[in-house]
Amino acid sequence: MRFIFSTAIVGLSLMLTACGADSEPQATDDSTQTTKVPDDGLVLEGQVVAQVNGEEITIHELNVEIARLNIPADADRRPIEENVLRSIVSRKIFEQKAKAIGLDRSPEVLLDIRRTRSALLAQAYLRSRSGERPAVSRREAQQYVLDNPVLFANRTYYIFDSIVVPTTDLTEELKDQYEASGNLNDIESDLLSKETQHQRRPYTIYSETLPAAMIEKMPELQRDRTVFFLVQGATTFITQYQESRPAVLAGEEAIDAAIRTLTSQKSRDFLTSIELNAVEESDVTYTGSFSNLEDKPENLIQGKLQQEIDDSVQSTDDVQ
Questions:
Q1: Would you say 88 and 57 are in contact if contact means Cβ atoms under 8 Å apart?
Q2: Which residue of 38, 179, 255, 308 pairs with 8 in a disulfide if CB–CB is 3.0 to 4.6 A?
C-alpha cells in the first residue's frame, strides 16, 4: 500500500478588516495652509507636495502610500515620507513617458488597468461588508476545544525526515523502489549516484496542520516507519516519520487558539456566503467553449476548498 499525500495550498487572502473612512481635508485657496491628516500624524505644507512636468502630486496621494507602510509610532517619519514622495515622483515620470509613446492606449495595458480596477473595487466591496462577519464567542471556543481533542488535549508535535526532489524525477518505478527500501540514507545514495537534484530536509509539524486523512494513517506510519510521498506541485517530499511528542494546548492558550481558528473559519464561510448570494442575484451566462461551466459549482471559494479536501490524501494499491 503506497501513501501519496497531495497538499493543496488555497490562498483565501481577501482582506476583511474594515478600512478607515476618515474624510479628506478640504482644499482651500491658500496654498500655504498647513494640512494635517489626523490618523497618521503626517503634516506637510500645502495641498500639493510636488509637481512633475506640471502635474501635481497631492498630500492625499502621499498619505495613501504612507498608510500602507504601517510605520511604527516611534519611527522617524520624515525620512520615510521623503523616500515615499521620491518614489511617487519616479513613478509619475515613468507614467508620463509611457503616455508620451502611446502605451496608455495599448490593448495589453488597457486590460491590465481594467483588471486592476476590477480587483480594487471587488476588495473594497468585501471590506464594506466586513462589519457583518459573525463574531466568535468564548462559549463557542470552549465547545470547539472539547469537540476537537486532536487539536488541543491530544495535540501532537511530529518530527519527520525527508528528501525533497522534483516531482518529474520520481517515476512510479522509483517510488516502488524507494518504498521497498524504506531507508532514506539508501534513497539519498541512489539519488546521488544518478546525480538527481535533491535536498535532505528534516521538518516538524503540529497535528492540527496535517490533513485529516494523514492523521488517520499516522499510527501505521509510526509503527512501520513507512516511506510516503508528500506532493506539493513541482516538488515531492520523500518522507519518513521519526518521532512525536505531546504538545497539549489547554486553558486560556487553547481558548485563544480556538478563537483564531473559528474566526478564520467564519471569515471563509462569510466570503463564501457573500459570493453565493452575489452570484444568485446576478445573471451569469457562459458562452462558447466555456458553456460547460453552467453545470459546475458557481462558488469558486467553495469549489477550491472542496478540491483541497478531495486531493488532501490519495491512498493507492500497489498492484504491480
A1: yes
A2: 308
Give the integer Cα–Cα distance in Å for 309 and 261.
18
Query: In the numeric block, which cell numbers belong to residue 153?
Result: 488535549
- CA 3/CA 173 separation, integer angstroms: 15
- Condensed to tens digits (0 to 9), the pLDDT of residues 244-265 reads 999 999 999 999 999 999 999 9
SS3 135: coil
- pLDDT digit string, tens, across residues 111-135: 999 999 999 999 899 889 989 989 9
Grid cell locating 202? 528534516
Strand partners, 163: 200, 238
- Name residue, grid cell 509503527: 223
CB-based contacts of 281, cutoff 8 Å, min separation 6? none
pTM summary value: 0.58
Q: Which of 9, 56, 1 is nearest to 314 (CA)?
A: 1
Sign of the Cα torsion 303, 304, 310, 316 reads positive
Which of 282, 184, 162 lies closest to 232, judged by CA? 162
Q: Taking a C-beta distance cutoff of 8 angstroms, is the pair 184, 227 a contact?
A: yes
**Any idea what the Cα angle at residue 211 is, between residues 208 and 213, rounded to 5°?**
125
43 pLDDT band (50/70/90 cuts)? Answer: very low
CB-CB contact of 147 with 258 (8 Å): no
Task: Say if strands 34-36 and 43-45 run parallel, antiparallel, or are unpaired.
Answer: antiparallel
Strands 34-36 and 203-206: unpaired
Residue 152: count other Cβ atoms within 10 Å of its Cβ: 23
Q: Where are the alpha helices (DSSP H) in 155-240?
A: 172-181, 184-193, 212-224
Cβ-based neighbours of 96, under 8 Å, separated by 6 or more: 52, 53, 55
Look up cell 492606449; give the residue.
Answer: 105
Amino acid found at 252: E
Q: Please give the Cα distance from 158 to 245 (Å, whole number).
A: 7
